[in-house]
């Protein structure tokens, strides 16, 4: 990996790990600001690299909380990675209004509903409000940061 590719990746991954320490009090310990740097990375740099940052950030965040859902966090990391890729793909193709809406709907509602057969309806219905809150907060902060970083990003030709 060339340094011009490695440096932004390490920066965004570090920010995702730092964001995993900023927990959102919502009943489950793995809700944090770990996806915000991944969303910024996917929108400004590459949806593929943003996807990697999202998966690693979620695993770090859930690890700090003691993996409250056990090995399901690997599946959740894959879901987050896919949703982050979709966000970056849409954002880079000027669907800047649709990208946040689909991310919040996917991360806050659709992704947890896919886990109903595995962990049950009651648990999922209990965590959806917290997931929606975390998704909304991550999307709001990322959509506020992206335009400000974009000019810097373009000047530096990163």
Detailed description of the structure:
This protein is mainly alpha-helical and 158 residues long. The chain has one domain: Arp2/3 complex 21 kDa subunit ARPC3 (Orthogonal Bundle). Helix content is 77%, strand content 0%. It is built from seven helices and no strands. It has helices at residues 3-19, 35-44, 47-64, 72-92, 98-113, 116-119, 121-156. Helix 1 (3-19) packs antiparallel against helix 2 (35-44) and helix 1 (3-19) runs parallel beside helix 3 (47-64). The relative contact order is 0.15. The mean pLDDT is 89.
Tags for this entry?
membrane; Arp2/3 complex 21 kDa subunit ARPC3; transmembrane helix; ECF transporter S component; transmembrane; 158 residues; 7 helices
Short précis:
With 158 residues, the chain is mainly alpha-helical. The protein contains seven helices and no strands.
List the helices and strands and how they pair.
Blueprint: H1 3-19, H2 35-44, H3 47-64, H4 72-92, H5 98-113, H6 116-119, H7 121-156
H/E topology pattern: HHHHHHH
Strand content: under 5%
Radius of gyration (CA) equals 15 Å
**How many distinct beta strands?**
0
How far apart the termini lie comes to 15 Å
Largest sheet: none
Class computed from helices, strands and strand pairing:
mainly alpha
Mean pLDDT over the residues: 89
Proportion in helices: over 70%
Shape, per Cα inertia axes: globular
The total domain count is 1
Q: Quickly count the helices.
A: 7
Could you name the CATH class?
A: Mainly Alpha
CATH architecture, please?
Orthogonal Bundle
Question: Low-confidence stretches at least 5 residues in length (pLDDT < 50)?
Answer: none
CATH topology: Arp2/3 complex 21 kDa subunit ARPC3
Transmembrane segments: 6-26, 72-91, 98-116, 122-146
Protein name: ECF transporter S component
Keywords: Membrane, Transmembrane, Transmembrane helix
